[in-house]
Design goal:
The chain is built from six helices and eight strands, in the order βαβββββαβαβααα. The protein is an alpha/beta fold. α2 crosses α3. The strands form two sheets. The protein has a six-stranded mixed beta sheet with strand order 2-3-4-1-7-8, with helices on both faces. It starts with a strand and ends in a 14-residue tail after the last helix.
């Protein structure tokens, strides 16, 4: 089963319609080999200083800077958020693949990555990178995200078989995956146009 996680219920419904998932469950929509679920924006946040060590509950200038060995995340204390997180966690524990359908941007990426980390997701994860919620845009992006591994393999194969040429240019919809693979960095996105800069 492929689990798609969107940032809000309305976006999840749009994606589910395109995928043919019609069966509404508690916290997700299922059908056609997909389970489409959602967050409510931020479900997780960084831990407070005292949650790392009790000595940081009441602090003084002498205790600064407060830098833990590793930053931790926690669920936001809200019964609705906690219930939805447990639905997501259960889906991700049994998923064959996850498609991150978070909003296109750094915050959207962070929101979903924290949830996947907290849920202990272990299966392959693909990224749905769209700024339009039209049926055509969603369908094209889903097809691209699911087949991106084979697309990258064919791209590198054509590169190695050509004499001394650089890697073939990727389709525009795969530019994020291409940049991340080739240059080992996460591109920044313009908050206005959401294009790679």
């Amino acid at each position: 089963m492929i689990v798609c996680i969107a940032e809000k219920p309305s976006v999840a419904r749009d994606i589910a319609d395109v995928l043919g998932a019609k069966d509404k469950k508690d916290g997700y929509i299922e059908g056609n080999g997909y389970q489409v679920t959602w967050t409510f924006g931020h479900l997780c946040t960084l831990k407070e200083p005292h949650e790392y060590t009790p000595n940081w509950k009441s602090w003084s200038l002498g205790s600064l800077p407060m830098v833990p060995p590793r930053f931790g995340i926690k669920l936001i204390s809200n019964p609705t958020y906690e219930r939805q997180f447990h639905v997501i966690e259960n889906l991700m524990q049994h998923a064959d693949m996850i498609i991150n359908c978070g909003d296109a941007g750094q915050e959207g990426e962070l929101i979903q990555r924290w949830v996947m980390q907290k849920a202990g997701a272990r299966c392959p994860v693909k990224r749905l990178w769209i700024s339009s919620l039209t049926e055509e845009a969603i369908r094209e992006a889903i097809c691209s995200s699911v087949s991106s591994s084979s697309s990258e393999k064919s791209s590198s194969h054509s590169s190695s078989s050509s004499h001394g040429s650089t890697t073939a240019s990727p389709p525009r919809k795969n530019i994020f995956l291409f940049l991340k693979k080739q240059f080992r960095f996460t591109p920044r996105f313009s908050p206005i146009s959401e294009r790679v800069i």
